[in-house]
Design goal:
Blueprint: H1 4-11, H2 15-22, H3 30-42, H4 49-56, E1 61-67, H5 76-90, E2 95-101, H6 107-116, E3 122-125, H7 133-141, E4 145-148, E5 159-162, H8 164-176, E6 183-186, H9 193-205, E7 216-217, H10 223-233, E8 243-246, H11 249-261, E9 271-276, E10 292-295, H12 302-314, E11 322-325, E12 328-330
Parallel strand pairs: 1-2, 1-3, 3-4, 4-5, 5-11, 6-7, 6-8, 8-9, 9-10
Antiparallel strand pairs: 10-12
Helix pairs in contact: 1-2, 1-3, 2-3, 5-12, 8-9, 10-11
Length: 340
Amino acid sequence: MATLKDIARKLDLSITQVSRALNDHSDVNEETRLRVKEAARAMNYHPNVSARKLVSGRSGMVGLVVPQHRNLGQDGIFMEVVAGLSANFSGRGMQFVLHIMREDEPALPVYQKLIGKAMLDGFVLIDPMDHDPRVDFLRKAGVPFVVHGRIGDAPDYPYFDIENERIANELTTHLVERGHQRIAFLNGIAGRSYVTVRERGYRAALQAVEPDPRLHLNGPMDEATGLTATVRLFSDGGPRPTGIVCGNVRLARGVYQALAALGLSIPGDVSVVAHDDQLPTLRASAFFPALTVTKAPLRDSWEPLADCLAGAIEGQPLEGLQRIGSYQFIARNSVTSPQG
């Protein structure tokens, strides 16, 4: 197996230059960085984690800790997260470690154990809660991390996020402007930070029409929840909305199935809109009728998350490690004015 010394000899560079190029240090020019990485690939070089730790104080390894659940292996979104993060950290010469906790295992002792072994340089946090103990724990421990999302109005840590409040507001406003007053929102699990701000955007759009609290429903963002929530909304004595906002396209697919089973048409009886993460197996444009959405591909998150965590590990200024992605509104055929 090739060593740093072998690569240095081949390229007529010092071992220090080779090491810093492989670790993306800013004092190495781009041409040298590319030459070194190309030679490392060609020579099948793999870093010795223990040696790297001794030299730099870093292992080049970062982690994602998630709880186990029964359908984890079949969860398309989870697989997209793992594949995307792994590929982007690998492209930066870093190793991505997935740690799956037991379903009933508390999170903080797991982080404490992983930190205590001193093998991970930082963590990616996903699905943040409104008051997420992981953030305070890692901050106090002095361990770099990046959050996929924001907690509160003035986060003081690296993150990548989209404008969730604006997204929910724009989808709801689109229905309000077409005359809808009874608008349901199928949101995510209560307490998650993006769910809280989406509810805020939804309620702000309904200021002029007195929102019915029965029309805001929380739950897992999957097809089954979309179906059962829609049946509940249209059951005897239910609020019977004329428009439904869905937190993602999986919920929307369940809504479409439920409305068809109830003999209700889209958009004639009920208009439907959703946020689209652009999962490869579920295309909103292929719904019938085609679904009106805000679009922000989930896959666009992995590169900035990897950039921000790598920057935090390097000690870069915080202002360059807080990024917000864009989204696009696409009007299709799933919305019209309410009948009557």
